[in-house]
Amino acid sequence: MQQMRLISVNTGTAEWLEHDGRRYQTGIAKRPANGPVPVRKSGLSGDRVCDRQHHGGPDQAVYAYSQEDYAWWSSTLNRTLAPGTFGENLTIGGLPTDLGVGERLLIGTVVLEVTAPRIPCATLEAALGVERFADRFRRAARPGAYLRVLNAGEVQAGDAVTALPASDDAPGIVELYRHYYERPGDATRIRRFLSAPLASRLRDKFERRLALLEGESQPA
């Protein structure tokens, strides 16, 4: 079991953002909370999710990012990136870049399960104010992890975080992340992905791709 530390617990309210001629509300701007924060099945108490079509829900209730990956980005962009900049709820020291789907993080009584990598979007780019940042984020393959809440409780900065590994055949989030951009992908690998406890949105995408691949392989 790997020992880690919770550096920051971050929540956000709805704020207006302008990008490519659009003005819309987003909860991506998250700031460190003081003291304990309740963690429920739906996510962190006081955290706002505006775009529920693509974010939030029980399979993507919490987003975690590594302090070490933040340090890499700070060096790459030559600017200091505070916890919560990428919209993560939990900034964790020692968190591996490549977690396995089904891997569990224990924080006190809270139990979280890895379900999917984060796929960058225009909102992340707008929030950072870096041109074509979504492309850079994609190429860097440091996506962070979405988590479902298996057991609720409270978390706060300074808490110890313990990882319980996924099964040996579980796909890693970096493998999933890279394969997400391969269209339509490889049927054998996708079947393996679908045997893991994926987030429902990612599962739906891979199921559609598998159906397409299997349809193409049928004799005329």
Annotated CATH architecture: Beta Barrel
Largest sheet properties: 7 strands, mixed, barrel
**CATH class division:** Mainly Beta
Helix content: 25-40%
Using the coordinates shown, work out and report the CATH topology. Answer: M1 Pyruvate Kinase, Domain 3
CATH superfamily: PK beta-barrel domain-like
Count of individual helical segments: 6
Structural class: alpha+beta
Please report the distance between the alpha carbons of the first and last residues: 51 Å
Q: On the 0-100 scale, what is the average pLDDT?
A: 92
What do you see in this structure?
The protein has about 220 residues and is of the alpha+beta class. It has one domain: M1 Pyruvate Kinase, Domain 3, CATH 2.40.33.20. The chain is about 25% helix and about 30% strand. It has helices at about 65-75, 120-130, 135-140, 175-180, 185-195, 200-215; strands at about 1-10, 15-20, 20-25, 30, 35-40, 45, 60-65, 90-95, 105, 110-115, 145-150, 155, 160-165. The strands form three sheets. It has a seven-stranded mixed β-barrel with strand order 1-8-7-11-10-9-13. A three-stranded antiparallel beta sheet has the order 6-5-12, with no helix packed on it. Helix 5 (about 185-195) packs antiparallel against helix 6 (about 200-215). The longest helix is centred in the C-terminal third of the chain and has 18 residues, at about 200-215. It starts with a strand and ends with a helix. The model has no long low-confidence stretch (mean pLDDT about 90).
